[in-house]
Amino acid sequence: MDMQASKKKLGLKERYQVMTRGLDWTPSYQKMEDIYPYVAYEGIKIHDWDKWEDPFRLTMDAYWKYQAEKERKLYAIIDAYAQNNGHLGVTDARYINTVKLFISGISPLEYVAHRGFTHVGRQFPGAGPRVACLMQSLDEIRHAQTQVHSISNYNKYYNGVHDFHHAHDRIWFLSVPKSFFDDAITAGPFEFMVAIGFSFEYVLTNLLFVPFVSGAAYNGDMGTMTFGFSAQSDEARHMTLGLEVIKFILEQDPDNLPIVQRWIDKWTWRGYRVLTLVAMMMDYMLPKRTMSWKEAWEVYFEENGGALFKDLARYGITMPKCAEQIALEKDHLSHQAWSTFYNYGAATNFHTWMPDEDEMAWLTAKYPESFDKHYRPRYEYWREQAAKGNRFYNKTLPMLCQTCQIPLVFTEPGDPTKICYREVDFKDEKYHFCSDHCKAIFEHEPEKYVQAWMPVHQIYQGNCFPEGTDPTVEGFDPLAAVLKYYHLEHGRDNLDFEGSEDQKNFDEWRGMATKNV
Amino acid sequence: MQIDLRTVSIKPLRNTFDHLVRRFGDKPASRYQEGSYDIQADANLQYRPTWDPEHELHDPGRTAIVMADWYAFKDPRQYYYGAYTLARARQQESAESSFEFVESRGLLAQMDEATRALALAVLMPLRHAAWGANMNNTGMCADGYGTLITQPCMYHAMDNLGVAQYLTRLGLLLGDVTTLDAGREAWLNDVRWQPLRRLVEKTLVTQDWFELFVAQNFVLDGLLYPLIYEQFVDKHLNAHGGAGVSMLTAFMGEWHGETRRWIDSVIKIAAAESDANKALLTEWTRQWRGAAVEALSPIAQQALGDTAADVLATVDQSFNDRAAKLGLTL
């Protein structure tokens, strides 16, 4: 018998289809809406899931094979880097604070992304997008874990991240990235895909993930750089998925356009507010800078993003309105952020410092419109005060934005001398916002955002002290109690870099590694 | 003689992260521990899911099983992503050699037409059963609580997809795309496959994720894999010139043996936690086992003919023995 003769040869596309969506069937013993209960309530209309174009074609055997090769290489480098005390080769010990920011602020988000893609990977009635989401779910747990494994060695030698999971759920500024991702995963499956798959992974990834990895490369941190490079091909897949999602939804029904546009507006702004942390990292925390925040925004959003939105214009999608305000803020964002962290340096899990003379000159050159006029004088004053032994630590608590949870420190669009405040009354309560965009996001879904776990409110309500704390006793020190609740060790994990244990140890260890003593 | 390679030695400030020190003491942690324990947020969650406002985002209340510590479910394989992909990459390499070997030696031609048709009739509809298992394990990972148990569910889901894809390749090798269509047709309309499809569709609407774990991973696959891959493929087909098929499904048998260790540990740990858990697990197992045996019997009949009832009874019996060892009294 010759079986080959009658065989219809499958093309790559058909072959992938029988390996994925060909496995699916339309149920008849149960109702579709019982199997996929969450797909209708956002109002997105999908008529034909078969129109989904697979953004990549990876069967499980190929996935295992390629990913295992990458894992082998990555862990070999991580091991070598640790064994060789690679951390002593970074530009200077201030750099390590970038790593602290990354593991406590960003890595936990990779984990939430994993759970989010798992959730939507179960919920879409289309088998094609479901499989693509599952692959991404698996990649995201990879990223969460490889990041922990890469950075684990830093924790052994430096302070601040010894309890980073605990920190992520509690420390005031970490509620900014956390609430961003919690917002996305608690949204419906389509909004999640637009928020994370498209806005975050496609539009903003070059402004988030890439600056950290490039920063690592520029500063001699091979451990961090390697997981970044190892994740690159995963990220490329995620980007194609993000773009396909948008196109698919928009092509399915014209009624989807206003919903998707609102989500893109919302998530560009939400994402941009999270990027505040990246902006200050790029301009202040990297001893060897890759580019300024402003330059990065111009290249990756204004140019590349501009081209993308031009491309999406045929679906009726327009550039998010918030881009205008972001353009006005780009001369100020990183400086306002770093000033805030310098202020609250007693309540952070990384060190802060004032830029040195060379760095000030770099900032002047990169920000000719704003730095010398608005920020240099402030820094010089703080530096003077620190030299006199009056390093300023702000011990009062700031008002937070109900949406992005950043303290109200940003200035009015176009007027860098005036703090921007917005407020809304909702059910007899007053809510505060950093901007018109955060206010608008709240107003669209107030029931959701009133639930926010606001770190400052929680402290005032007495919810951020260790169990058994009595705040009424004589001499009660609220900041000390809050640091205990955060599991931060005062004097080791926080305060200025100058005089820190990290600084002292690094100098001593580097001496051991480079000199004969 | 030992050679002494020198590196600069500096004393670390700490051995590992505090959350692992609290669990395991102050000593270096494994990569499994670093990548798995406590990495799901468990405090100060921001918003309730708009898709399930009755629950928190991560909520132990999505199952009736109660655990004092959801991180009790240590995976005996200690799979984190790296360990998992490396293990599967090795297996896919050997599966790949099997496919090549079978193809190059023309091993499938040793089967007569009736055996070939029988192999396809039994195996092709199972692509869809594996797909159902993929959806269910994805759902367990999404709804579950604590990374120690949700993480292996995700790996299991991808394995289920892998199984469905190996079956697809087998179908394409032994037949062509119409072979797959015929399997789908049987899954959808052949009266012998309807009880199983009905059961699988019922699992797709089962809300309690731990019950779903029992139904899918412990009971249904605990009966289906021994019945199909051990009894039907490895014994029955092998005896009729089907060694080639046996080679092409080697992954499934090996995989079932490996993942069984993890599934057993989950059941055992949950049952040992409390009498209430044990009662629930027993009840779920009993119900789903009854339904699964019923759903599998027409398939066993089709696959094994006269010996079907005896074989299924043996499979059922060894499943009961397995359950008893884990602390369930069925």
Summed up:
The complex is a heterodimer of chains A (517) and B (330). By secondary structure, chain A is mostly helical. Chain A is built from 21 helices and four strands.
The class by helix and strand makeup of chain B works out as mainly alpha
The general outline of chain B is globular
Look up the CATH topology of the domain at 49-318 in chain A.
Ribonucleotide Reductase, subunit A
The CATH superfamily of the domain at 49-318 in chain A appears as Ribonucleotide Reductase, subunit A
Mean pLDDT across the residues of chain B is 96
Strand count of chain B: 0
Spatial ordering of strands, largest sheet of chain A = 1-2
H/E series of chain B = HHHHHHHHHHHHH
Helical amount of chain A: 55-70%
The biggest beta sheet of chain B, please? none
Low-confidence residue ranges of chain B:
none
Strand content of chain B: under 5%
Description:
The complex is a heterodimer of chains A (517) and B (330). Chain A is built from 21 helices and four strands. With 517 residues, chain A is mainly α. Chain A has a domain at 49-318: Ribonucleotide Reductase, subunit A. A two-stranded antiparallel ribbon of chain A has the order 1-2. In chain A, a hairpin with a 2-residue loop joins strand 3 (422-426) and strand 4 (429-433). The longest helix of chain A has 31 residues, at 127-157. Chain B is an all-alpha fold and 330 residues long. Chain B has a single domain (61-325), classed as Orthogonal Bundle (Ribonucleotide Reductase, subunit A). Chain B contains 13 helices and no strands. In chain B, helix 12 (275-304) runs antiparallel to helix 13. The termini of chain B are far apart. The interface between A and B is large, with 99 and 88 residues.
